[in-house]
Design a protein that fits this description.
Blueprint lengths: L1 E6 L2 E6 L3 H16 L13 E6 L3 H15 L2 E6 L2 H11 L7 E3 L3 H9 L8 H4 L14 E13 L24 E3 L4 H14 L1 H14 E3 L3 H10 L4 E5 H9 L8 E4 L10 E8 L6 H11 L2 H9 L5 E2 L28 H11 L3
Parallel strand pairs: 3-4, 3-5, 7-8, 7-9
Antiparallel strand pairs: 1-2, 5-11, 6-9, 6-10, 6-11, 6-12
The protein binds fe (ii) ion.
Fe (ii) ion (FE2) binds next to loops.
Protein name: Extracellular solute-binding protein, family 1
Keywords: Ion transport, Iron, Iron transport, Metal-binding, Signal, Transport
GO molecular function: metal ion binding
Length: 354
């Protein structure tokens, strides 16, 4: 027979050819776990917290495993998209099983924050990252960053034809020539930056232009593949999709170059992934420890080493040298806690992009 105990800290396997001895040991293992002793797993008291995870699953698996290794606290991941899980948390209210919420982009954090569903974060946690990754409420914290990037097929777009602003993509020169993953939370965060920088009128006009010009893709990877294949000459995505493909086979990006808008254009938007502790959690201390870990040197190093190729936000941990340095991106100055996800959805629906 075999006994297998699987947790986020790893898999423990034990085999015995003898049925009765095996059964006795199963009982012993179970009793030990129930008693909260160390034989259960990673040297902890057997606590498990629940993470509503809207970030990429592979990245969070790596970060959470490093957390469990350090603290012994296990983490159960429940997966969903930014707006989906944010709305779920608000709907579940006090009965939400979530202890911690992690997103790809900050508009979903703001939605939960405005509904009053977050606890205050420990000050020491907020102090682990530069100020621009801390919202004014102090109720959540940024732990990863991702840059907007214009990608183009180098056989179809000449360097002197590159747009100087993301706003240019609404003009007639780009009709049928640009791809976007309109339904994705990533692209919607970029639209929220346009809204924050340019205001509602200009954003509505820009979206109407995109509706005329853009080809719509299911997600960023589909847009990258389409540009690589020459199906559409250009697209707007986040940087790590291109860098990840380059680091693997390059098969979906070998004909594709990157153009960073820079000069504080809304197209140079750097989106922030957030983490927060839910007010309804009955494991506040453990939940605070997870968010503290994500922003700690060890957590940030796990992010960099994960191969996700997102940017670390801590000044203390150098980002992967393959990336264009975060300090050179020259993004627009945006308060990450003001980005308005629901308004973006409304404007995109009105423009016919959703
Ligand atoms: Fe993404």
């Amino acid at each position: 027979m075999s006994v297998q105990v699987e947790g986020s800290g790893g898999v423990f396997s034990w085999r015995s050819p003898m049925g009765s001895l095996g059964r006795t040991l199963v009982v012993l293992v179970t009793a030990t776990c129930l008693a909260g002793l160390s034989a259960c797993g990673s040297g902890d008291d057997g606590k498990t917290i629940t993470l509503y995870n809207a970030q990429h699953q592979d990245l969070m698996r790596v970060m959470v495993d490093a957390f469990t290794k350090q603290t012994g606290i296990k983490v159960e991941l429940r997966r969903g998209g930014d707006p989906e899980l944010a709305n779920q948390i608000v709907q579940e209210g006090d009965s939400s099983p979530a202890d911690v919420f992690v997103t790809e982009n900050s508009p979903a954090m703001t939605l939960v924050d405005r509904a009053g569903r977050f606890s205050k974060l420990d000050r020491a946690t907020l102090g682990q990252v530069p100020d621009q990754y801390v919202p004014s409420t102090g109720n959540w914290v940024g732990f990863a960053a991702r840059s907007t990037v214009f990608i183009y097929n180098r056989g179809q777009v000449a360097k002197n034809e590159l747009p100087t602003s993301i706003m240019d993509l609404a003009g007639p020169a780009w009709k049928g020539k640009v791809g976007v993953a309109a339904a994705g939370a990533d692209f919607q965060a970029i639209v929220s930056a346009v809204l924050a920088v340019k205001g509602e009128g200009a954003t509505a006009e820009w979206l109407a232009g995109l509706k005329r010009n853009a080809k719509i893709y299911d997600n960023n990877i589909a847009a990258l593949r389409a540009v690589n294949a020459g199906e559409v000459p250009a697209a707007v995505i986040y940087h790590y999709y291109w860098y990840q493909d380059q680091a693997e086979s390059g098969k979906d990006s070998r004909n594709v170059d990157l153009h960073f808008f820079g000069h504080r254009d809304p197209g140079a938007f750097v989106s922030v992934s957030g983490a927060g502790v839910l007010a309804a959690s009955d494991q506040q201390a453990e939940a605070q420890r997870l968010v503290a870990f994500l922003t700690s040197d060890a957590g940030q190093k796990a992010l960099v080493d994960s191969g996700a190729l997102e940017y670390a936000v801590s000044d203390a941990v150098p980002t992967n040298p393959a990336l264009k340095p975060l300090s050179t991106l020259d993004p627009p100055d945006i308060d990450i806690s003001t980005l308005n996800g629901p308004k973006v959805v409304e404007l995109m629906q009105r423009a016919g992009l959703l």
